[in-house]
Each structure stands twice: as C-alpha cells, then as structure tokens.
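Handoff note, outgoing to incoming analyst
You'll be picking up this chain. Sequence as last confirmed:
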Amino acid sequence: MVDLEDGRTIIVPIVWFARLLRATAEQRANWRISGAGYGIHWPDVDEDLSTAGLLRGGAAAGEAVRG
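Most recent structure output, in case you need it:
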C-alpha cells in the first residue's frame, strides 16, 4: 500500500512482486524513497518499484508468482 501526496492510496497484491513476497517482514520493512520521490527501493532484496508502475497496475514483468 502506498499513500500519494494527492490523497490517493495505491494497493496492489504482493504476489505481483516475487522478491518482496519471498522477503522477510524485516526485509520488507527496510525501504527508502528513491528517484526524487518517484519510487521505492528495498535494498535488502534489491527491488525497485516506481510510482508510475504502481499506478499502471499489473505485475512486474517476469516477476509475478504464478499459481
């Protein structure tokens, strides 16, 4: 879940992001704002998500956990 400055909240399933799904709660809790505020970085799992990508919706290419 990401809260935007304009008041919108983006909620996407964690299964769209396999590295975050496999990460521990501690690893997921260690995140930073990146890209001058246009993204999120999780250094422990080397994952980067952009706000634009979250707004577009859909799983990261080749990364979603399947069935």
